[in-house]
Amino acid sequence: MNKLRIIPKLEVKNSNLIKGLQYEGLRKVGNPIDYASKYYDQGADQINIIDIVSSLYSRENIYEIIDKITENIFIPICVGGGIKTIDNIIKLLKCGADRVIINSEALRNKQFLNEVADIFGKQFISVSIEAKKINNDYYCMMDHGRENSNIKVIEWIKYLTQNNIGEIIINSVDNDGMECGYDISLIKLLADSVKCQVVLSGGAGTTGHFLEATKFNCISGLSASSIFHFDKINIIDLKKNLKQNNIEIV
Amino acid sequence: MKSVILDLGINNIKSIKNASDKICDTKVISKKSQFLDSDIIIIPGNGSFQKGMEEIKKRGFDTIINEFFLQKKKIIGICLGLQIMMKKSEESINSTGLGLIDGEVSKINNPNLKLPLLGWYDIQFKNNLFENKSYFFNNNYSVNLKDESLVLGKLGNISAFVKKNNFYGFQFHPEKSGKHGIELLKKTIYS
Fold first, then answer.
1. B27 in contact with A, Cβ within 8 Å
2. C-beta atoms of A123 and B13 within 8 A
3. What is the domain partition of chain A in residue ranges?
4. Percent of all residues in chain A with a pLDDT value above 90, rounded to a whole number
């Protein structure tokens, strides 16, 4: 009864859709609003939008972009990047965001997750993890991969699942933009019994990469950016292919 | 046709406003004094049960909802907007709901489903009321009604659509369920 969600991830800098490699070397791709409507028309199940500089600069750009995107798109729009306050969230909701994605602030201040849950409910929060392998251990990075929190991914996942966080999005910093496949060893950090929703992100380059990741029961969504942005595959064909392989999908 | 959306200050108002705008004349109000007249009121989703009830009372929306319900005028409740019609909720044991429908909100208990429900799930509607398709859910709790015959749409054992008189309650989000979600809203508004 759980259906796999296919989730294009749009990273936004100022007013541009951008894409990098391993969270660096960002290049402009185009207008995020155009890409969002393209993915809506192709049958995306949800769109995640990350403002990669809002923690450093002003947030006004992201509000404007979300406001425009949600005018004509009627699927869930989840927004992250530099969310630090309840006010940030209320403003995003007013612009039409459905859920928020929180990373750095949760690592700095665990209490923030409780504050958000008390007002909006636990189902409302996605915690994003930017996992980077350092000396054979995965660590949670902050501020779009720029800073190491020194918290191990495995410990953080344990905390989040014990606290019934709605969804965990695990991004591989090392595989980001590389189109080399999802980082399967990251999935293995999750117990198969994990109860919350889990989305894997970073590295998808072929339909085969999606199929490979669906073998793990704990995965409820797969996120990708480069292969959609650069038209290597479109969502219609991807879903057709997954269906032929008996994956439960909308 | 005119609809008024009750803004609780903790919701994504814009999606439902944009969706409803495409269907009929739509206004958003944030307190009772802004209410003039309407054919339909829409209570949107999201938020915890306790916070939702607090905001409803603070803004004087409880009187509008009561009046509409008793006069059998159309109310559309989405997600939390359905749950607050019940007497109480396991999510917030210290607060009471509007109690206009005899039932309770409890944590979903279905071994085949991960919690929260997040994503697209198939719904079976009775009497071909709406299209049996996948709709978008995002919730940990659902309603259990004393009178099961009011539940006209189900996701497995979970109440997905409740209708009592002219109250239409959706546990899922039609305004987030793509093009067929908008069709369902249209049908509801003009039924």
1. no
2. no
3. 5-244
4. 84
CA distance B169 to A91: 27
* Closest Cβ opposite residue B10 in set A98, A120, A164: A120
Cβ within 8 Å, pair B116-A3 = no
CATH class assigned to B2-190: alpha beta
What is the nearest CA distance from A236 to chain B, expressed in angstroms? 15
Which CATH class for the A5-244 domain? alpha beta
CA distance B145 to B155: 15
Give the pLDDT confidence of B58-87 residue by residue, as tens digits. Answer: 999 999 999 999 999 999 999 999 999 999
pLDDT above 70: residue B111: yes
Task: For residue B78, give the nearest of B34, B134, B30, B143 by alpha carbon.
Answer: B143
β pairing state of B134-139 and B151-155? unpaired
pTM of this prediction? 0.94
Taking the CA of residue B19 and the nearest CA in chain A, the distance in Å comes to 8
pLDDT digits 0-9 by tens, A13-47: 989 999 999 999 899 999 999 999 999 999 999 99
Omega into B116 within 30° of 0, i.e. cis?
yes
* Long-range interactions of B34-39: CB distance < 8 A, separation 24+: B35/B4, B35/B64, B37/B2, B38/B2, B38/B3, B38/B4, B39/B1, B39/B2, B39/B3, B39/B73, B39/B74
Q: How far is CA A66 from CA A44, A60, A95, A186, A248, in A?
A: 17, 10, 6, 30, 29
Q: Which amino acid is at B139?
A: N
- The catalytic residue among B91, B175, B180, B183 is B175
pLDDT digits (tens, 9 = 90+) for B48-65: 899 999 999 999 999 999
Amino acid at A176: D
**Per-residue confidence band for A2, with pLDDT thresholds at 50, 70 and 90:** confident
Q: What is the mean pLDDT of residues A123-152?
A: 95
